[in-house]
Prior knowledge:
Elements: H1 2-29, H2 31-51, H3 72-91, H4 93-114, H5 126-142
Amino acid sequence: MWVALLIALFSGVAMAIQGSLNSALGKIIGLLHATLVVHLTATLLVIALIFFRLNDGGSLGKLWHSPWYLWLGGIIGVFITYGVVASIPRVGVAWATTAIIVGQVTTALIIDHFGLFGLEKIPFTLWKIIGILLLATGARFMLN
Length: 144
């Protein structure tokens, strides 16, 4: 469990750096063009990793057996990248990241509670409600 949490922590660090880099690129080449470059370079990296057999034993042949809504992740990723590229120059990295985290955790609690997308149900508790309220309050303090 701790390893997974450390991986998540480093992902958060990477997201803040990535958002900053993407926004800086967006200032130079434009928001949509930066979004395109981000996704093209990511695609090339994943292709290389699969080519060099650094994958997890997955198979694209199984793709057709997955529900249609599971394909929306890539489309949503474009909106996420565009949103980050557009928001950071206007409000700064800390504000944008704070808003992202509050939205992300709130949505994650809803997904967990209902077990959406075939995931395990993890019910809402009073402590989680208190936690999200404290997170939002802390975000408010950070944004002043």
